[in-house]
Every structure is written in structure tokens, then in C-alpha cells.
Amino acid sequence: MTGMRRLRDWGSARRRFEFCLTVAVVVALTGVGVALLMLPNAVLPAMRAAQPGSTDVVGQATAADPRLAEVRRIVEPFGPVVVRQVPTGAGRPSLVVGHPGQRADIDILERELPAAIAAVTDVWGTGWAQSALVVVASSPSEFAGLVRASSLVPAEVAAASIADPFSPGSQPTGQRVVFGPDTGRRLDPAGMATLLRHELTHIAARADTVDGAPLWMLEGFADYTANYGQGRRFADVAPTVTARAHAGDIPGDLPADAEFSGPNAALAYEKAWSICAFVAEKYDQPRLVQLYHRIAAAEQNPATEDRILRDVLGTTRTDFITDWRSWLRTQAT
Q1: What is the rounded radius of gyration, in angstroms, for the C-alpha atoms of the chain?
Q2: Given a cut of 90, is residue 2 above it in pLDDT?
Q3: Which CA distances in Å does 197 have to 73, 115, 157, 165?
């Protein structure tokens, strides 16, 4: 699909921080509700004029939303704050937060958020908040603060989703998706929407995800959900895998966590997506979700993965990889 952007992980950042952090990095560039604004009065008329179909409200209801407390402390020093309230799903309204200078990105995210939450719910199910807090950073320093990083985030990081530390079995708090300051200039609206769905998948699945679970499942499933129902061809989503398959280079094993950082990260993400796409096509989507629940519940090794694949899909790990490799050959032709 023209304008499609692939999503990448920021190395092993999710293991380097004490909080739960997942990120998407752009390594290759290819291709509505009530607006609630908390801005100085001088800014509001211009915003209304530029968006004649919207309703701009300044008040205490959104300002008092507990999800905004930490975010406001971080973003207010960087300038006037824009807050959009977006009805989404069966949960409470979602929020998109940023500054006037990020209005273009905010507009896109406000427009795409209902469909993105619906798409994630369609795959994952209704067992999550079906609501999100999405923030657009205006500078590298603000981005670092919003993801609680101890230093500036690498420029190639496009977005991140974070949560407060939580114990297995409890519901995560403090969840938000943060877009980097340059993401809107590097991605078209379709790319922004795909990135949003990827990060929202991490939000939806976080309560059932243990840090250290295999990235081929965590990131592959997020990419699967991000691309679900978009009508994209295999070669559009996995161009590197396709090119290598044409050259006779078919992966021999599931990608290891180390492959998701460094120069071959693009290939690792594409392989991970293709594994989940294969499971959904050969078995069905509900069993893909069931497989995620089992694989993401703990750190795994080939032996434990074999047991889970037998339980969920009725196949051994060896046969699973053989079938996936055969499927890849067919898809890449």
C-alpha cells in the first residue's frame, strides 16, 4: 500500500527501564468527537476558525480527568496544552493531548482513534478499557519526560506506550501512548493510524503480558493487529521477507529477541508479523489470541513453546516452523 510505514522496536528498551515500555521505531519511510481545548483565550478563536465543524470547550471536566494529572505536570512547562476528548468504544472517552504546534498530528489521531480502538477490540476482544490517553510530544525533552526516560530518546523512535509498574494479575495503571515530535513529519495519516493501532494493542494486552515474554509474539501480534483488515498485500507489510524469499532465503527459526534491535530489526518485525498472520490464516484468529495469552504469560524457551503450541494448535514447534516456512514461500511468490 502506498505510504505504508513499517514499525520497529527501540532495541531492548523495554528491559532497560523499571517501568513497562514498548516502542515503535520508523526505520524505513514509504508511504470524531467533541474537542476540548485548554488554551489561552487568544488561541481559541484561531483554532475554532481553522476547524469550523468542531466544538471547542474550555472547562474543568477534562482538566480533572485523573489520567491527565501526570501528563499535565510534564507538558505544561512546554507551552499551552490542547486536549481533545474523543468518544471511543464502550469505555470512557479517550483523550488526545498536545500543544498548538502539534495540531496537525492531534487532528489525525483524534480522527483515527475510534477506528483504531474498534480494530484492536475486534482482534483482542472487549476485555480491556477500550479507551486511551494519547500524547503528542513537541520536543525530544518532552518526549523523554512523557516516557519517563532518563535521557533523550533516540530520534528514530516514532512512538511508545508505557504503564506504571504492576504485579501480574493486576490491572495496569498510568497507561498512555506517546508520539514523538517528528513522527507526523515522517509518516502520512495511514502510517500514523497503523502506528496508533500497534501501540494500542500493547495497551490492550499489557495486563496479560509478562516482561521477558518472546518478542516474536508480543511485537508480531501488535503488528498483526495494526495491519488487520487494511487490505495490504503480504509484500507491502513484509518487503524484506519477500525479497529474501525470492532469493531463496527462508527463515529457519522463530526470531530471537536479540534480532529486534540493530540493523536486522526490520526483518525480525516482518518475520514476527508473518508468524501471527500465518496462525490467523491456518488456524483462526481466536486461536491466535489464545496463543498470545499463553506465550505472553511468561518467559519462554523452545521446550515451553513446544508445549504451548501442542496445547493451543495441536502441533509441535518443529512442525509449526516447517508449516510457517512453507506458508512464507507461498505468500512471497
Answers
A1: 20
A2: no
A3: 26, 9, 16, 22
